[in-house]
Known about the structure:
The chain is α/β, with parallel strands linked by helices and 294 residues long. The protein contains twelve helices and eight strands.
Amino acid sequence: MQRFAATTFAQYKAQGKRIVxxxxxxxxxxxxxxxxxxxxxxxxxxxxxxxxxxxTTLPVTMDDMVRATAAVTKGAPxxxxxxxxxxxxxxxxxxxGMYNAGRLMKEGGAGAVKLEGAFPLALDLVEGLTLAGxxxxxxxxxxxxxxNAFGGFKTQGKDALAAANLIIDAEALAAVGxxxxxxxxxxxELARAITARIDCATIGIGAGPDCDGEIQVFHDLCGVGGxxxxxxxxxxxxxxxxxxxxxxxxxxxxxxxxxxxxxxxTHVDSQVVADAQxxxxxxxxxxxxxxxxx
Length: 294
Ligand code: KIV
């Protein structure tokens, strides 16, 4: 089977084949995701929420993203990896954006980077990165890095003017070369219209069923995200229940001394331990020099 690459987004869109993505943030999650047959992984700055316990993605740093991306590329070496540029790693200057995208590729091993919005500097960056050989995924709608400007995590594009702005932004990003465009928390009708209007693949999250693909957060899919599950997410596994039950069994087994059992245990001749204790006693009473144990 041919490996998914940056160019595969457009091929799948042309073939009408749905693109399936989810996030991962560490080596263990990446292994599980790769084994599932998912097309591509996003190392999302949602790691601020899912892995670091912040209320927003704003505190996430470049070092957080580079470390997570490097771990995910190790766990899923055969999967296409997109990595997020975190808040203020590209908004302040073109040079910052180019440099930080380079870090995600060089130090993290990402195959593409993602940035939010279609403001003039973002469009310049998409163009510059694309010319430099860095595939870029765009992200519009409820872009979490702008949560303060939105006044909360609210569905975007609900009136005609806001919807028109999103269409204009999507077309602008497509024109400067994004390989795919994430549409987050917008009405399904608007997502369908954008998907029909642009050549690049749209990847929905809370954007209805008619995008070219779907992306969801690992923790929401696997039921390990705590009490809150966004309306657009579904638990495809009850991971927390399975893991809690397993760990409870571990607690009981240790208390009952049925674990570790023989198969988890290594032995030596009991004479080795008797001799070791004799050495320790000799050291303590001064009849053996510490040099003798080196
Ligand atoms: O950071 C993230 O996980 C994302 C997805 C929600 C698209 O950007």
